[in-house]
Every structure is written in structure tokens, then in C-alpha cells.
Specification:
Blueprint (H helix, E strand, L loop, with lengths): L1 E2 L8 E8 L4 E8 L3 E9 L2 E6 L14 E5 L4 E9 L3 E11 L6 E5 L3 E7 L3 E7 L3
Parallel strand pairs: 1-3
Antiparallel strand pairs: 2-8, 3-7, 4-6, 4-8, 5-7, 9-10, 10-11
Length: 131
Amino acid sequence: MQRVQFPPGATGTTIADRTYPGQIKRYLVNARRGQVLSVRVLNGSVTLDIRYPGGRVVQGGSNVLSWESELPRGGDYKIDVIATQDTNYQLDLNIRDLVQRSDQGTGNTGNGWWTGRWVNGWFGRWNGFQS
């Protein structure tokens, strides 16, 4: 197992290595609940299995070339690299907060208040009331 370390200030990294059938390369990525983890194979004859911190394969995360999801819990997520032949490979791995920390706002819709941060549209907390 290899723990993934991000360069200072970075939210992503590229991993390059070599593997062969029968050998599983496992990477650990520590993440918080609510963050978005994305991983994709850039090159190489490999597929990925993505596992929850407890070890169970995430739904839709088995035998994939790319995967992205908001994480339902925090901990060490596991990325297994599985080769179909002797191969060099490269992975692109990113982790980010779902809600960006800029462009904050507050407003009144006429029947309640919303607060949020801009992420491809307003996302945030609704404090609505019925009229």
C-alpha cells in the first residue's frame, strides 16, 4: 500500500508506476465526508477498484477506468490498480471540497432565505418558510 501525498497547496496529483497481472497496486487517499474524489486512468492496461475506508468496493467503482463521487464518509479510501498485462500506467487523482470557498452569498427569495456558495449555480442552505 502506498499513501497518496499531494504537493503543498495542490488538490491533485499524477501517479506513475508499473504493474503486472496478479499484482494489485493499492493507494490510500485520506478524505473527509462531503469531498469529491475523482480518479482516472491516463494510460496503461489497467482497471481500478475503488473501496470505502472499511474495504468494501463502492457501488459503480469496480473494474472502471474512471470514477468520481461525493464521499459519504471520511477516512482512507483505497484505489486498487489491476493490470490485464505487464504495463506502465498513469493515474490522475484529485480531491476537492464540494462547495468552493469563494463567491459566498445571501438572498431573500420572497418566501425564505438562502445562503450558499457558487458552484455551477447556487448551492447552500435553504431557510425557507411557507406563506
